[in-house]
Structures are given as C-alpha cells and as structure tokens.
Amino acid sequence: MKTLLFLLGNLFILTVQAQSLQSSCNQPRSGDRLMKRMITTYEPGPSGSGQIWDFSDLELKDAGYELKYVSQGIDTIVGIEHHTMYYYRTSGDSLFCLGYENPSTFISYQKPELLMAFPVFQGRVMTDYFDGKGNYCERMEVRLRGKSTVTADASGVLILSEGDTLRKVIRTYTHKFIHQRMIPRIAMQDSLQLDTIPFVLNRDSIEYLLASDSIRQETETWRWYADGYRYPVMETVKSIVYKFGVPYEHFTTSFVYLPDEQYYDLPYDTDNQERRDLSADEEHERNWKNTDESGQNKRNNSMISYNFHIGKDGSLYINYELKQPGEVILMFYDMQGRQLAEIQRADQTIGNYKEVISMNSYPRGEYLLRITVGENQYGEKIIKY
Question: Could you count the other beta carbons within 10 Å of the beta carbon of residue 78?
Fold first, then answer.
C-alpha cells in the first residue's frame, strides 16, 4: 500500500510571514562578493500573498560569474558583473543607478534611474523616469530615456534544492520601458555646447516617445528576497523589443544567488544575521507547538485549528475546528502548480468538520495542500512514496 509521509516542520503558515526590505539589510555594500549562477529559466508565476515557489529542481548551468561591489568616492558604489560596471548612489532612503559602462557602451544618467525606495513592503508601487546619454564604441551618440515601475507584487515561501525552505520571501517586479536613439557622433565642440544647456526632465516627452515611436524596448525583472539575506536569492529577467507594435522576445534568463554563499561569504552582516537568528527561533518554537503527543501535525490560530492523517485506504483526511463562521476552501496541487482537487464549503458555522481527498490515482512525488479560511491561507507540503 502506498503511504504518505508529511514533512514535519515544512509548515507554510503564509499570512504571518510578512516581510519587508530595509535599507540597512538590503542596500548593496562595498566589499561584498557573491556568485550569480545561471539556472533553468523559470516563469515568475502569479502575484499576491501566500505564494509557494518551488525551485527544488533547478539546474545550475555552466554560465556563472562573480558579482562584487566596490566603493568609488564618498557616496558611490560600483557593482561589477559580466564585464559591466553599474554605478549606484543612495539618496535618503532611495537607491539610484547613475549609469553603466562596458567595453562597448557608456551611459551616464542626467536623471538617475530609481531602483528602490525603502522600506519595500508588499503592494508598494514606485514609478519614476530616467534620462541618460553616452556613446557606443566611441562612434555613436546614445540617448536613453524611459520609465520604470517597481512593485512589491508577491510574498510567500520559496523552496530550493535539497528541501531548503525560505520563509518570509517577498518578490519585486520591475517593468522598465526604454526608448533608445543612436546617431553618429557629433563634433566635440558641438557636444560641449550641448552640455552647457541646463538639463530639465520632460516626463511628457518621454511618455510621447514610449507611446509613439516605432521601436522600443521593455524589460521585466522579478527578484525574490528572503528575510535575513541582503541580496535576492532568485532572479528572472525578460527582454522584449517592440517593432511597429509587434513584440519580439529578445531573451529570458534566470539566476540564483545561493543562500549558503550569502550566509558564509559576506562579512560582518550583523543586521541580516540577527534576522536569521530570529527566524530560526520562530521556526523552532513553531515546530514545537505544532506537533502533538502522537506526532501528528496540528495547526492552531484564532480562526481554525486542524490536523490531518493518512488512512489505510491511502486517502488524506483533514479534521478541523472552525472557531469563527465563514468560508473554508481546501485546494490540492502538484508541484507544477496544477490544481488536482478542490473542496469549497461556504458559510460554515462554528464547529468540527472532516474532509477527505483521495490520493490513489496520483503518482509518487511532492504535492501541496492549501487551506483558505476567509482571507487567511495555510499550506502543507506532502510527499507520496
């Protein structure tokens, strides 16, 4: 008979795992070095709270490179990766990109690009414009203008290889619209005259260019940040070029910043160490509270308490006590996000209930059970052997 083993301790109590990004814990620091490794491309999935991102089967590709930060002057940090240098500056609680350069291209922003305004919490939206100029291969003048919107669009739990589970994960989504113009380099004298004209950002002009030009570029970037880690642990980047309104995908790629490397290799990150220690204490207390004398899993909160076990017939039995009247939804998924079963009970009164989900027809592997009570969600990871 097939049996099911539940991962005790892999408890996804999603609504209490709120996370926010703070300047003290998530600003880039001079001297930090970490590896950015290319992996199998992952679609970001939906937005919203209570997400479960399963990246347990990610495959590291050969392509990977070092990302390092060094200081330049008093208030500028240079991020160096993949033969490109990005220039960053902090102003108040905001992080800006001042420009970038590599062997072929140099761009300096007259109006820097806003990357983040701290604190960042789910639902926050940050929109700004940027305007820069530079050159390509010393032969072409480049004018780069656009609009960037950063949204903290999702939060939940992230599962990495070997069962590593990161809670209090928040995802940011950056949608950038770019208009680029390239013309042959003009004489140095003319360039100097242009530089003497005071710069004024014209938002209406940028909006017009983005809406009316026959060719424009968009980039979408999703980054997953885990509580206690300064840098994102996952990243997916998609680039699209629009020609006369028709989209052409330029590239899509994903990266992982391994948490172990952030944990061991980044020196003196006491702010994030304190947050990891606090999360570890919370995890230990949660595991202790959520196991009864018989070893069964149980959950308790102000709206519901429940436990579950596997019957001799191979079915999953869920027993729960509803402490406040309302709607209860049980949803069962495979790890590809496909919904396999749903039980919906509307307008239930206070009391005890039992539900059954048959597992006999499902193959071996991992599954997810999500329980929704009103606006609260809870999740359990299940392995079928």
Answer: 19
Query: pLDDT band for position 291 (50/70/90)?
Result: very low
Mean pLDDT, residues 200-209 taken together: 89
| 185 vs 136: CA distance, rounded Å | 9
Please list the residues that pair with 300 across neighbouring strands: 305
Tell me: cis bond preceding 325? Omega within 30 of 0 counts. no
Query: Do 253 and 339 belong together in one domain?
Result: no
Assigned token pair, 211: 């809406």
Q: What is the pLDDT of residue 372?
A: 87
**Is the CB of residue 253 less than 8 Å from the CB of residue 239?**
no
- Residue 115 or 195, more confident: 115
d(CA 64, CA 87): 21
C-alpha to C-alpha distance for 223 and 171, rounded to whole angstroms: 5
Distances (CA, A) of 150 to 51, 126, 268, 294: 19, 5, 29, 48
Residue 368's DSSP bridge partners are 333, 381
Flag the least confident range among 218-232, 322-336, 359-373: 359-373
- My answer on whether 25 and 88 are in the same domain is yes
Burial of 260: CB neighbours in 10 Å, binned 0-12, 13-18, 19+:
exposed
In whole angstroms, how large is the CA radius of gyration of the chain? Answer: 25
| Tokens at 336, concatenated | 């590809």
Whether residue 49 contacts residue 154, with contact meaning beta carbons closer than 8 Å, is answered with yes
Return the pLDDT at 281.
56
Structural domain harbouring 126:
18-272
- The end-to-end CA distance of the chain, in Å, is 10
Does the pLDDT at position 289 exceed 50? no
The whole-angstrom separation of Cα 305 and Cα 206 is: 54
Q: 290 lies in a domain?
A: no
Nearest CA-CA partner of 327 in 349, 305, 295: 349
What is the DSSP track for 22-51?
-HHHHS--TT-EEEEEEES-------EEEE
**Considering the domain boundaries, does residue 361 fall inside one?**
yes
Provide the mean pLDDT of the chain. 81
